[in-house]
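Two entries, shown back to back:
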Amino acid sequence: MKNNFNSYFKRAFKIAYNVENILPLICSSLVLTFFFGLIQELIKKRIGTSESSLLILLFSTFFIAILAPFAIALGLRHTAKAKPDRLLASKDKPLPRKGLILLVSNEKPCQVAIDFHLQQGKLKQCWLICSIESLATAQAIQSFNKDRIVIDNPIVINDVNDPISFMNVIDLIYTNAAKPPEKWQESDIISEYTGMTAHGSVGMALVCNANNRSLQYTPAVRDNTGKVIGSAEPIEIKLKYSGFPPPESVDRGIAPLQNPSADRKLPPQA
């Protein structure tokens, strides 16, 4: 509990003393100074001492510098515990992205997703996550697209029934992409949860939703008998909370990923 509040206080301190908020803080200080000046005059009339000026000045400084961030921290803590009205979801055409993460089962929907983002003119890199069983399919996708985009060797998940394994791998992809020389924003990458096991899709959805990362799926096209005959264009799922934006993952009670150190490595690539 103490450590959680310390994290709120650190965030509150950054909020109170960043460049964007320094002007409002100065204005607030002026208002408080005027208010405490009135109190000072009342004290002088009652007590008639000059020491009250120093006391008022010290109290004003303490209130502005310490109690203001403390109040913000309490507000952040209350917001983190507050239950949002409800989670709202909508569907839309995916925006152009630099990066695409795919769960590989069948080749067709993966290739449709890649082609879609290539046509948008922004796709630069694709990551393929697969199982031992779907490794050959992932390698075929890699071979076909290697001259079109950056596409490393497929990442093999050994336990496809462990959603945490998927969460760790996907989180590390985002983390590495944010490092030099790329320095990509998380909004530069979208994750496609069509493919592999339900545990893989759940793991991807959890790690993306917890960190406000983008998700999409590629729906199947079926004939009158229900047989899959192709894949439609990808659809992006957009989530938002009514009332206020979702707080950061640490504030939503989501446990940190396993081995969150900077030296985490992806599983051996095929």
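entry 2 starts here
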Amino acid sequence: MIAVLQKYRMLFLILAILVLAAIIWVVILSRNDRSIPMRGVFVLKDCLCG
């Protein structure tokens, strides 16, 4: 098993970086601040300041 890891170490490293980049990309795209929340409290801007 250790011999396999030594042989393909660079491939595992590249694969890990790609998986990490994909996870970060999905998290960034899923955070859409301008969208309407599915659940939550809707606050009108006019009512906040009087």
